[in-house]
Write a structure and sequence with these properties.
Elements (H helix, E strand, L loop, with lengths): L2 E7 L7 H9 L4 E4 L8 E5 L2 E5 L12 E4 L4 E2 L1 H13 L6 E5 L3 E2 L2 H13 L12 H10 L11 H21 L7 H15 L3 E2 L1 H9 L4 E5 L26 H5 L9 E6 L2 E3 L8 E2 L1 H10 L12 E3 L1 E2 H11 L3 E5 L9 E10 L2 E3 L6 H4 L3 E8 L16 H14 L3 E5 L7 E3 L2 H4 L2
Parallel strand pairs: 1-10, 1-11, 2-5, 2-10, 5-7, 6-8, 7-9, 11-16, 15-17, 16-20
Antiparallel strand pairs: 3-4, 12-14, 13-14, 17-18, 17-19, 20-21
Helix pairs in contact: 3-4, 5-6
């Protein structure tokens, strides 16, 4: 029977999922991306080189690993080809990549509409990447979207494309945006079909067949749980569900296969875009953490907002996704601070909340209840075990375990995959 591991972001994205998935992808027989699109961005560092990925699974660097872009994703084939071209230029040419024939496609008009919708919101901006992800998901659920598998049937694709343009061109015209010509789009996507058609398949069957063997299968999410369309800080969220609970639907497997969940969390918090952020820091400490952690968006380049570790959020996302262990990321960034803080609750309207409220109106009123711990000055980037960490650093880890109720199974002390301390025996054996 297979071994399975689900890696999810447990904050507002940018937690370090790329490093964790890359770390386990080295051992995995299959890596599956089950939601999101090329609005995700993560960096992988090994052998002194940095690679940036958006929609392609992190196992792409291992020639023996089967990489799957599953049906729960929205796939921009133009972006996929560009991403593969960049990898080729960096010498990554030997890989296995498959794309679900049921995955929704991000079409050119989706990006145009994404930007237009965002501009119309005025002061209520969501902070979207304008990659067309939201409009693509919207068309999927409106049943007027196109799917990757359509490319393999030219006549059917032409029929679906014309039906989509009949609707979308009217919408574009009303917004004062350029309309799209059927033949130009058709010819462009038939050319795309010639380049990636051999990768398109029934990935649900591929994954299920693999799960029935003794293979190691890694499920990789995008964004973070606090950006979940259902459970995040709505409306400042993404358009899909990054939860471990969405793995079965997004990958096309039974829920029985989801039984080992790793929650990736920074040793502090960050957020890109708009929306309430209860533990947000400003001034010198925020600047120091941002610069030391290189906290700028992989896709957008925008500076990330900085905050203390939020145990309210951590408990919430652990409950929603059944997190078994934390992977505590960028732990080394906190070295050198005199004091470090952890938020254990929210003070709001005279009461202390232990879980996030459902509305941003109430969340915006919340003030963090902080506990203060001693910082550490030592450089920990070369640390190989938990026992080698400074006492203050170990106390910080133990406090996170105490206030979240979830053990810390991994600690990242630097960007390279070798700068990782694995504490959990189960994770060591994956």
């Amino acid at each position: 029977m297979s071994e399975r591991l689900v890696v999810i972001g447990s904050q507002w994205g940018d937690e370090g999922k790329g490093k964790m998935t890359d770390y386990f992808a080295c051992r995995a027989d299959m890596v599956v991306r089950y939601q999101g699109g090329n609005n995700a961005g993560h960096s992988v560092v090994f052998d002194g080189k940095k690679y940036s990925l958006q929609s392609i699974p992190s196992g792409i660097f291992n020639p023996k690993t089967v990489n799957v872009m599953a049906n729960g994703m929205v796939v921009n084939p133009v972006s996929v080809i560009a991403e593969l071209d960049r990898l080729h230029q960096q010498g990554i040419t030997d890989y296995q990549l498959f794309i679900s024939n049921r995955a929704a496609m991000v079409m050119p008009w989706h990006s145009a509409l994404d930007g237009a919708y965002e501009n119309m919101k005025g002061k209520s901006l969501i902070g979207t990447t304008k990659k067309g992800i939201g409009p693509a998901y919207s068309d999927k659920y409106s049943r007027i979207g196109l799917r990757i598998g359509d490319l393999l049937e030219p006549e059917y694709f032409a029929e679906r494309l014309q039906a989509a343009l009949d609707v979308k061109n009217r919408e574009l015209k009303m917004l004062g945006l350029p309309e799209y010509d059927f033949k130009e789009v058709y010819d462009q996507y038939m050319d795309i079909a010639g380049k990636i058609g051999h990768m398109i398949t029934d990935t649900s069957k591929l994954i299920n067949d693999t799960l029935l063997t003794d293979a190691k299968v890694l499920f990789e999410g995008a964004q973070g749980m606090m950006l979940c369309i259902d459970h995040g800080t709505y409306p400042f969220v993404t358009s899909s569900t990054p939860s471990a609970a969405s793995v079965p639907v997004g990958a096309g497997i039974s829920p029985k296969w989801v039984d080992n969940v790793l929650g990736v969390a920074k040793a502090y918090c960050t957020r890109v875009g708009e929306g309430p952020f209860p533990t947000e820091l400003f001034g010198d400490i925020a600047h120091e953490i941002r610069e030391r952690g290189h906290e700028y968006g992989t896709v957008t380049g925008r500076p990330r907002r900085i905050g203390w570790f939020d145990a309210v959020v951590a408990r919430y996302t652990a409950r929603l996704s059944g997190i078994d262990n934390w992977a505590l990321m960028l732990f080394d960034v906190l070295s050198g601070l005199d004091k470090v803080c952890i938020c254990t609750g929210y003070e709001c309207d005279g009461e202390v909340l232990d879980t996030p409220p459902s509305t941003i109106s109430k969340l915006a009123k919340c003030k963090p209840v902080l506990i203060e711990l001693e910082g550490w000055k030592e450089d920990i980037t070369g640390t190989k075990s938990f026992e080698e960490l400074p006492e203050a650093a170990k106390a910080y880890v133990r406090k996170i375990e105490e206030v979240t109720g979830v053990p810390v199974g991994m600690i990242s002390v630097g960007p390279d995959r070798t700068q990782t301390i694995t504490v959990s025996p189960k994770l060591k054996n994956f």
